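A reminder before we start the practical. When you read a complex entry, don't treat the lines as separate problems. The point of joint prediction is that each chain is placed relative to the others, so the output describes one connected object in space. Small molecules and nucleic acid strands, if listed, are placed in the same frame. In the example below there are two entries. Take a minute to note the order of the lines before looking further.
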Amino acid sequence: MKTSVIDKFCLLFILLIASYEVVKGMGDYDNTAILFFTIGFGVIIIASLLILIFNFEILTNRFVIVAAALIPISFAIAIVRIFYSEYYTYYLIFGIISFFLILITRFTRGKTLSILSIIIGHGTAGLIIVFLPFILFISGNPKFNLLSISMGGALIGMGGGLLAFLKTGKPILSEKTIFTILLPILFLMTLFFALGI
Amino acid sequence: MYFDRDIDSKMKRTAHRPLPSGKIKPKEALALGIFFSVTGTLWAFLLSPLYGLIIFAGLFFDVFVYTVLLKRKTPWSVIWGGISGGMPILAGRALALGKIDWIGILFAVSILLWIPTHILTFSMIYYKDYHKAGIPTFPSIYGFRYTRLIIAISSIGASLSILFGFLSLGISWGYMRLLAILTVGFIGLAFMTIIKKSEKINFGLFKYASLYMLGAMLMLIIGG
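Here is the predicted structure of the whole assembly.
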């Protein structure tokens, strides 16, 4: 499926926002958190460029699917590093293992294992990105932009979920609708993450 | 181009160009080409003799060595095309510094290595066209597999040269991070062209290489 003019504009804005974040936009975090945020935004930048060049067809590529897992995992590691640094090492190990599980199961047989590894890796990262900043905010953290990270996490979950169900052959929405809203969702996700970080 | 108008007319990709399609007369093109080349080179010499010399070298390598002497004889002519392509960035740096330094050479090398990604991809996509026009290309002499390998290696070389160039110039870490991201994508796609034989991926690498160079040069202007 080809990208529309609106999609191309979305991709352009995603590239600009994510590039700005990588170059100048990140807050006063330590180098480790910046590294993981850079990985997350980096995958968004490369994925946007690839969609711009190859259209949505690239999303069926196994390398791209595996690399896309780095977005939530790296963001989640960075968030844990910033707000719950005492759990950082444990979650880093968990994140690395879950990523390699996604990588291995994607290139070997066993659909159940592949889905399971995605649920564990993506699911945990998604829960961290969506709920951890939200819990911090309602617990009294005055940073309002934390909610923006939660919103970004919810949007990445929505986009990923739509694609995952489409891939299993049981789409929630029609394929055409999914690909119509996918890049606007990705754009909003990038914007919310940028505002939050 | 005046000298290539005969082969341009044989190739679908270039047949519509003003000279082969007859929109411009050969004498007009030649006169205009000579006028701009001489004026431009003289102007460059007036600005700085070293700058003028590099500009002249670029013109000489492109027009005489690449186009007139080698293009119809050997596929390795692309190297000379690449050297001439690297001259503008070297000239700009030499004009600013008043001398040729190794950073300027590094950036010129990055252009030299980036150009095969362009030309060799074209030579695969328009293989029949080049064959019809009798132009020796890498795919026709060494085969598609070897050509893909050369493209991948030169793409990696180009991206590493730019990366070292950025490091040598002391570009800020923010821009270094962004360049590193774009480089990972570039190298990854270059490897994909070796793993998966696909014209689409090759053309994708060609497009990515263009965006990569544009992005790197913009970063150099903004962050340099």
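Discuss with your neighbour: Residues 144-169 of chain B form the longest helix (26 residues). What might explain this?
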